[in-house]
Amino acid sequence: MKKLVLIDSNALVHRAFHALPPTLTSPKGVLTNAVYGFTSVLIKMIKDLKPDYIAATYDLAGPTFRHEEFAEYKAHREKAPDELYAQIPLTKEVLKAFGIPIYEKQGFEADDVIGALAEMVKKNPPAGGIQVIIVTGDLDTLQLVDGEKVVVFTLRKGLTDTMVYDEKEVRNRYGLNPNQVIDYKGLKGDPSDNIPGVPGIGDKTASALIQKYGSIEGLYKKIEKAGSKEKLSPKLIEKLIENKDLALFSKKLSTIIRDIPIDFSLEKSDWRNNLNQNELERTLKELGFYSLIKRFNEIGSGVVRLESQHEDSLPTLALDSNQATEKSETPTASLKTKKDIEKALGIMAKSRELVFDIQEGVFGFTNDGKNLFSFNLEDLKIAKADLTGDDKFWKILVSVFEDEKILKYGHDLKNLSKIFIKEKIHIKGINFDTKIAAYLIKADRKDYELKDLYFNEIGEELQLGMEARLLGIWKLKNFLWEKLKSDNLVKVFEEIEMPLVQILAEMELVGIKIDLNSLKILSKSVNKETVKLESEIYKLAGIEFNINSPNQMKDILFERLQIKGKVRKTGKGALSTAAPELEKLSAEHPIIDLILKYRELQKLKTTYIEPFPKLVDIKTNRLHTTLNQTGTVTGRLSSQDPNLQNIPIKTELGQEFRKAFISSPGCKLVSFDYSQLELRIAAHISGDKKMTAAFKRGEDIHTRTAAEIFEVAPENVTPTMRREAKTLNFGLLYGMGLLGFQRASGVSRDRAREFIDRYMTEFSGIAKYMEAMKLKAKKEGFVETIFGRRRYLPEINSGMFQLVAQAERMAINMPVQGTEADLLKISMIRINDLIHKEYEDGGISMLLQIHDEILFEVKNNLIAKFKTQAKDIMENVHQLDVPLVIDAKSGNNWRDMEAI
């Protein structure tokens, strides 16, 4: 039996638009979330249903016959966002490329067109029979289900949870046959379409009545004949009789018209024959849907396969990294002997630019994107071990990679640099890292694997093997370079990001020394305190329970102890026991503070104290974290394996933990920490006169803010006033609203509104900056730092309240936080230059960059001189309208540090 799929396009487009975030955009910046979801469902449908024929239907703008008969039809519906309507023509382009015809009829809805098409095919089926499958996002077409002839394929939740309704499933849902669904709607109504039905009749009553009487007409015939003798309540009979016309009219509105004249033929719907392969590939690539090309190609036989490469694309490479296929026009040198390797390095030495890579023990390079060379690293080690006075191999390798005139390109050069540093080779001339370039262009990607970047940016599958990687990096480098230029990101890339690559590699290899004995002592102390807290919590609760279980915690606090207070609910409707919510209840019962302290101990114990000893190098007692250059959207560095960014510093236990980070003998840890860097940047960017003047006078900015909003002299500012002013200063830059400030400060809503209004009045420059950044994001689609680093915010024009609000917060914060990251990175680069220039014999190592702080290990005799130099670099890293101030400290461990 053949299969014809009829697509309710409008229903799918609406479902896709609301199911996917408005962050999906084409390479040209056009919003494509609805188009992507629609196309994704289309491909899933082709894969799952394997249709022979496909036709699509759309609603046309303007009233239908239902609007003419009932003015209130769908009148309550809010107009869909313009961003949704703008994507409908794009979905039609996709359908056209798939070879799928589109059917529309003025004055009728898509459901009516579907009904007419289904009826035509049922009356004139092809030889062998045909099944009609209606693909939709709602249940309006269930009335069309007809045995095996017509079924409905619909989306239940999101875009992947699907269900097929045949007669059995319709009966399971409503207890009715498909042709009775319109009678059911006639009684119950349909709120989604504003169809009234009989007032007071709900799902169960409507279903029971139609089951008993077969139809609305059968129901009224019976009750009008039998009257009060019919076994129904008098009130129900009265309700039905009074609203007979409304019931019949609602049934009519709900009924899909099946006799619309439409010029239809199965031949036009034979999508495989009509599919425009080149047009489909062009359309999907233009929209940036490379992953959908891949999914479409994975469907398998019976479907035309899209070409994944253009005429100028990469040659097909063999899986064997030492040989190219016969089709490959790229000469590949497989190097086995030391003589071959030395000859290849001779070619390398004459190069001006070089792409290199190391994968699974194989080293490869190309100097022109055409000639490729690769050899096993074991051969390199053998050659190194066999060095004689006349052997030039190692010298050539060192000279090439330490020659800054030979530009080096690669993917993830930080990790490649670490391999070379371990061999005592410090690469110079690092020029282009495709991973870093891709991050700078689009900082919110999920990952930066070469194969994924290549597919997403170039639109082609990256083949396996070293040669494919080298050619892929070469091509991707050229492509990304053009994007960096068009986005005005070259300066940030060349002067901030690329110089940092080698620095981070060295920092990761150096690591930081850990006092394991100190961790053991702290672990015992934490375990002892945990047991004590458990006992106190159980005593107050009057029962032992699992303190780490949110469900048990909820039962204890809100049911057993009957603690009252305003706390938010979880997604499942239960009262939340998250820390911010429990903090609101701290005054309600002494158990709350104990629970919060217990959780703090547990987090410190499980996140840091217990895992850290396993991560420490047993030979050196040094911990080596990974400093992620592509881990945040603002440009800040992040730390992982382990994460050192989140070590608590304000609590006593957090400080005890920092005591385990120590210096080597003869050295001290030296810290350089910017003072209130974000607020200084905010003052500079906004040009706020009062904030700028306060920083220039060297005042405490939080005291000055408190004095302004509370209208008191600075000397009369209380600690509470200063704390609330500090919350405002930082909170507003992070997009904190009225409720956020109220929650953080603990003041009433009216008081919170008064504080914010006063702040915006007194610091009008900050208020204007906030509005200017939101406007810039809406007009240009991005905001940027003072150095040009960008953050794209397509969500700000999504029309969806929560996403718009989130994007506005990011628009306010990113220029400040991003500039903060840029200043720290530039400081790191300049201090690193200082170290390599004036301290070549060693004695100073850059260890960590955490928040606004850079941590070093410095020999005791160098501290005074280095402190002066580093402090001068950081305070003069860039000329702002306000002074930059550094707090310098040193000590034998990270906790016990004193000002220097």
UniProtKB/TrEMBL annotation:
EC number: 2.7.7.7
CDD domains registered for this protein in UniProt: DNA_pol_A_pol_I_C, DNA_polA_I_Bacillus_like_exo, H3TH_53EXO, PIN_53EXO
Keyword Amino-acid biosynthesis recorded: no
Gene Ontology BP annotations: DNA-templated DNA replication; double-strand break repair
Ranges where the DNA-directed DNA polymerase family A palm domain occurs: 654-862
Stretches assigned to the 5'-3' exonuclease domain: 2-272
Family annotation (Pfam families): 5_3_exonuc, 5_3_exonuc_N, DNA_pol_A, DNA_polI_exo1
SUPFAM superfamilies per UniProt: 5' to 3' exonuclease, C-terminal subdomain, DNA/RNA polymerases, PIN domain-like, Ribonuclease H-like
GO molecular function: 5'-3' exonuclease activity; DNA binding; DNA-directed DNA polymerase activity
Enzyme class: transferase
Source organism, top-level taxon: Bacteria
Reaction catalysed by this enzyme: DNA(n) + a 2'-deoxyribonucleoside 5'-triphosphate = DNA(n+1) + diphosphate
Record keywords: DNA damage, DNA repair, DNA replication, DNA-binding, DNA-directed DNA polymerase, Exonuclease, Hydrolase, Nuclease, Nucleotidyltransferase, Transferase
Gene3D superfamilies per the UniProt record, alphabetical: 3.30.70.370, 5' to 3' exonuclease, C-terminal subdomain, 5'-nuclease, Ribonuclease H-like superfamily/Ribonuclease H, Taq DNA Polymerase, Chain T, domain 4
Family membership: Belongs to the DNA polymerase type-A family.
Function in brief: In addition to polymerase activity, this DNA polymerase exhibits 5'-3' exonuclease activity.
Name of the protein described by the UniProt record: DNA polymerase I
Organism: Candidatus Yanofskybacteria bacterium RIFCSPHIGHO2_02_FULL_39_10
Encoding gene (name): polA
